[in-house]
Amino acid sequence: MAEKEASNIIIKLKQEGWSDQKINAFILFVETHTPTEEEARKIIEEANL
């Protein structure tokens, strides 16, 4: 994730009331998680309800 993107995400989440700890956990997840094809398919299917 680019520095500008990360900064914008942090700013927006702080505006939404997220705690620093929750923001850190979210960014860590985004930067390190690699979803499986099955996981991605399931999430997409659930979103199309």
Secondary structure topology:
Blueprint: H1 3-15, H2 20-32, H3 37-47
Brief synopsis:
By secondary structure, the protein is mainly alpha-helical. Helix content is 76%, strand content 0%.
Q: Determine the N-to-C terminus distance.
A: 30 Å
Summarize the biggest pleated sheet.
none
Mean pLDDT over the full residue set: 92
What is Rg?
A: 13 Å
Kindly describe this structure:
The chain is mainly alpha-helical and 49 residues long. It is built from three helices and no strands. The longest helix is centred in the N-terminal third of the chain and has 13 residues, at 3-15. The mean pLDDT is 92.
Annotation keywords:
49 residues; 0% strand; extended
